[in-house]
Amino acid sequence: MFIPIILGSTRRGRQSAKIARFILDRLGKTPEVETELLDLAEYNLPIMEERLRMRDDPPPRAQEFSDKLQRADAIVIVTPEYNNGYPGVLKNALDYFFPEYKRKPIGIVTVSAGGFGGINCLAQLRLVTLALGAYPIPASFPVSKVNQSFADDGTPQDPGTDKRIAAFFDELLFATRAFTAAKKPA
Asked: What residue stretches are annotated with the NADPH-dependent FMN reductase-like domain (predicted)?
């Protein structure tokens, strides 16, 4: 199964990057999973004027991003919460594409410096991914107090993190297997 991870922030000093690296490392150790990090800072998509499929002049790297989303069996989004929502750069990246997300499980990982782990952002992203035709999994992985809960290298400081991420991955992989099986011709 190919499950890429979208890092939904381009902010300088972003703390969500260490969480994305943690997810990449842990998900990459799952034998049946191939994964990679799709860092929006590296793709640098301009403000969307029209969905990719409706353009004859795609922005640089937009087609590459699209191809990876199309190939994906599921997607994980790692994003910080900014002002009770998610970053505009992530909304821009979601809006560029539409059929690429259809009928794909989406795992959402939210990050905050405060104590609530980005739950407002999580609620909003669930609605947006449903509107894109994707299926946000019921499990989530909110990270509160990111500066204290993870070291700079992405090492979790809380021993309960391993149990939480295992439950998140269990739900993500269950949904991915189910959706993959449902798409196979009978």
From this structure: 3-147
Q: Is pLDDT of 49 > 80?
A: no
Task: Give the structural domain span for 59.
Answer: 5-183
Domain count of the chain?
A: 1
Work out the average pLDDT over 168-179.
Answer: 98
Across the chain, mean pLDDT equals: 93
| Angle (nearest 5°) at CA 71 between 87 and 122 | 30
If you average pLDDT over residues 131-148, what whole number do you get?
96
Whether the model clears a pTM of 0.85, i.e. scores above it, the answer is yes
State how far the Cα of 101 lies from the Cα of 134, in Å rounded to an integer: 5
Give me the CATH number covering residue 42: 3.40.50.360
List of residues 6+ apart from 74 with CB closer than 8 A: 1, 3, 104, 105, 106, 107, 172, 175, 176, 179
And the tokens for 13?
């000093």
- CA-to-CA distance for 143 and 141, rounded, in angstroms? 6
